[in-house]
Amino acid sequence: MTKSDLEMKAREMLKAAKLYCTSGRIDILLVLMKAGKPLSQNQISKRSGKNRFDKVTIYRTLESLLSVGLVHKAFMEKRAWHFELANHCTERQCHPHFTCTNCGDTYCLTEISLPMAKSPHKGFVIHRQQVRLEGLCPACA
Q1: What is the full DSSP assignment across 68-112?
Q2: The CATH number of 3-85 is which of 3.30.499.10, 1.10.10.10, 3.40.630.30, 3.40.50.300?
């Protein structure tokens, strides 16, 4: 897809979610679309290039995208949340992620489907399931 195709798609996503099409929202969606994997707020900032936004703007933009379900928090690493588009996930279950313990790269495993876990203990209610696998990626193995 070309940049203009991706930008058009970002605008459509925002309109469908009934959010204004601001440059910050469009740029952050474009960064996440191009990345194809979860990114931290700092990584999003670095990848936004010439249109860099301050941390507060990125945080508020991510919060607005989270509130309408366009983006979700994939996992936390080193006290920093990683965000990605929510298009491969449901409200109750996120696709698995694989993180290389050597290079630190994270990969989305959207082709893997895991059954929802059921708690063996009384009283526990599972609201959302996220699975993160660790090991060595092909480049590091």
Answers
A1: TTSEEEEEEETTEEEEEESTT--SSBPPPEEEETTT--EEE-TT-
A2: 1.10.10.10
